[in-house]
Design a protein that fits this description.
Elements lengths: L5 E4 L6 E2 L10 E5 L5 E6 L6 E4 L5 E3 L4 E4 L3 E4 L2 E4 H13 L21
Parallel strand pairs: 1-2
Antiparallel strand pairs: 1-3, 3-4, 4-7, 5-6, 5-8, 8-9
Length: about 120
């Protein structure tokens, strides 16, 4: 469970490091809400933007802090993931012997985060 704001990006100082073309050093922040499974996503003036993918596959640019469901697809540049996958990676690194900001394992075909 996310209990603080975390940063996502290519920086070695990011809580979740995603080394992928199109992701900024400090790309976005995820913050907890009072509602389980929902998060506040804030773009950190990333170069390629953060977009929410709607059920009909429209791309909505995140221009202000926005509450999303954890399974809502997010585009960071051209990289698609979800808040739930990012939080899962943060939890795994935080409690599983990894270090915050360590590299994320990805599926070599889809580029999606591999949990576990």
């Amino acid at each position: 469970m996310l209990n603080r704001t975390i940063t996502v990006g290519q920086s070695p100082h990011a809580d979740v490091r995603l080394s992928y073309i199109g992701i900024s050093k400090r790309h976005l922040e995820l913050s907890p809400t009072e509602y389980p499974g929902r998060y506040i996503v804030t773009d950190l003036q990333s170069t390629n933007g953060t977009r929410i993918v709607t059920p009909d596959r429209r791309m909505v640019k995140v221009e202000q802090p926005t509450i999303i469901d954890g399974h809502t697809p997010l585009l960071l540049g051209n990289y698609e993931t979800t808040a739930a996958a990012i939080v899962s990676e943060w939890e795994r690194n935080r409690g599983g012997g990894g270090t915050p900001g360590s590299r994320v394992r990805r599926d070599p075909i889809t580029g999606e985060i591999i949990n576990g």
